[in-house]
Each structure stands twice: as C-alpha cells, then as structure tokens.
Amino acid sequence: MLKRKLGLFEINPLGLGCMGMSEFYGSVDDERSERVLHRALELSVDHFDTADMYGYGHNETLLGRVLNASGRRNCVVIATKCGIVRDRTDPTRRGIDNSPAYIRESCARSTDRLKTHIDLFYLHRITGYGERIEESMSAIADLLAAGAIAGVGLSEANAATIGRAHRELLRLSHGRHGLSAVQTQYSLMSRDIERNGVLAICRELGIAVVAYSPIGRGLLGGALRSTDDLDEKDFRRTLPRFSKEAIVANSRFATSLDNVAQRLGLSASELAIAWVLHQGQNVLAIPGTTQLKNLERNVAARDIALTADTLQTLDALVQQTPTQGARYPTEVMSAYGLNR
Ligand code: ATR
Questions:
Q1: Between 159-172 and 198-205, two packed helices, what is the crossing angle to 10 degrees?
Q2: pLDDT (tens digit, 9 = 90+) per residue, 160-189?
Q3: Is the dihedral of CA 295, 307, 199, 187 positive or negative?
Q4: Is 25 a catalytic residue?
Q5: In testing the pocket of ligand 1, which one of 187, 289, 291 has its CB within 8 Å of the most ligand atoms?
Q6: Residue nearest to atom 27 of ligand 1 (CA)
C-alpha cells in the first residue's frame, strides 16, 4: 500500500500501538514485546505509538531501548504523548495538565526515557473544551523551534480545539508548522468523528487522523465474548462498551463481521483494520498487539483493497447492529470535552 503523510513524514498507513505492552490489557511480558517490536521492524512498520503514562514511563523506555538498538531508529517515527497525570497509589485516578511548564518538563522526561528525539508529540487529552489551547501551543512552538520535537498532534480533541490549535501553531511558527496529526478512537464501532466535525476539519486542514483502537480494543477480533474473557485488572472492565450486557451484544456484531470477512477470505480483525484505512488518504491506523501472530495479521491488512460493495455491506451491518455502550464513561467524555 502507498505511504501516507503524517506531517513531515511519509510512512506506511499501518503503525503499531504499544500501550498494551506495558499495562491496561492484562499481562505484560517484556521479552515477548521485544520480539513483536523486532518483527514489526522486519515487516516495515515505521510508526510506533507510545505515551508517557503507559506503565508510568515503562512503555517509552522499552520502545526506546529496542528501536535505538535496532539500527533502524532513523527509519521510523516515534510518537509519544503528555498531559495525563496519574497517581501511582491509585492507577484509576487521572488529571490533565496542559500547562506550558508541564509540557516542557514532560518533553524532557520522555526524551530522557526514549533516549532519542521525539518525532511526533501529542497532547494526550485536552483540558475542558480547549479554552487554554493557545497557551499550550506556545510551549509546543518553543519545543519545535528548539528541535526537541519534529511534529505536533492532539489526541481526542474536539473540532473547535483542533482548529484553534492548528491556527495558533501556524501563527507562532510563521507558517512553518500546523498540527501534523489528530489521534482518536476510530473503527466500525466508534464512528463519532464522522458526525462531530473532527474528520471534516482534519481533511480540510490537511491533518492526519491516526486511528487508535481500530479493532475496537479487541472486540472486533472476535475472541472477546464476555467480561470473563478479561483479566481481573483489565482496564476495559471500566468501559461501558465492555459491561456484562454490552459485551455480549457487541460480540454479535463481531460475529457478523467475521461472517463477512470469511466470505472474503479474511479475518474479522483484518477487515476491521482495512475498513479504517479506506476512510480517507489522511487516515492511518495503529492497532495494538502484544502477539506476533496478531501483528502479522494486522500488518497484512495494509494491502487489502475493499470494494464499494463490501464497504456498503459493512455500513449496513453497523446500522443493523448499533454498538452498545459508550467508548468511555459519560463523566470521562465530559472531562475530555468530547460530549458537545
Ligand atoms: P488499542 O488501540 O487500544 O490497542 P485495538 O488496536 O483496537 O486497541 O485492539 C487491541 C486489542 O486487540 C488487544 O487486546 C490485542 O490483544 P493481543 O495483544 O493479545 O494481540 C487485540 N488484538 C490485536 N490484534 C488482534 C487480532 N489480529 N485478532 C484479535 N485480537 C487482536
């Protein structure tokens, strides 16, 4: 598949989400993760997504160690994020800090853990409705000017904030930099960006949409049928979409998707990822996996061409079996300014 633009970079449309290598989705095993990262490089994956908060820095350290030792560091894009403040004594507690001082300090800490430069630096979540985004962009513009980061993104921002951040960055950098990317949950099960203006403004402003959870946090892979399939500490247990009732209903959609996939000689996860990559030339996907077999399947999805008929069939399927449960609890959506 042809490469796509991610700001200054031209890369493969399918990257690797590394979050699960540190926490959130059950057990973690560094050796296994390292094998997955090495295999990803062999398969020409050139976009690795991490964040300072994944495993309280563990994820950045792991990724930096493997990529720096691979000899391929300069052939890949490393994207990291800052702004979610966690409490080690209570992993479920979250705050958001987008202040200039916090952004500057976070960038320095991430660079230190990665032991390499940052290609793409996201604000992980945005405070309120983005009222103070200009202040954050001033710190970001300084980091760009100093060469500490090569590109800028927002993760889970609303359309108005995206527009304001992009314009402010262009103003501060005298037209040299706007936003390179907006990262957001996007899959057959999470299509809100098609309705809330995020997809439209990214297209209009030439910003890449980086789709996380393209497999619906595993639901579209077909193996999750009940909360019993999740580890006791699995973070998905806190999400409405994975409640006892919702997961059963949502797994019915996964079964229908699998039926369509089988008729095409594909797996459900391949079809789910390929669908995301068919949503526009500015859309990239970063499915997450900790398993070699799943990585190989996911990477295969970048070469799948879907017909207009198949895309219509999938739209009809979504209409017939609407997703049950929101992607985050209501209070979290409000805290992130995503409920307008
Ligand atoms: P996220 O972006 O949040 O990581 P995702 O990419 O939609 O979400 O899905 C990740 C989940 O799907 C993980 O639980 C992953 O499990 P493994 O680490 O065991 O692979 C699972 N997953 C990834 N690829 C898969 C595939 N090809 N088939 C089934 N499940 C898969």
A1: 20
A2: 999 999 999 999 999 999 999 999 999 999
A3: negative
A4: no
A5: 289
A6: 294
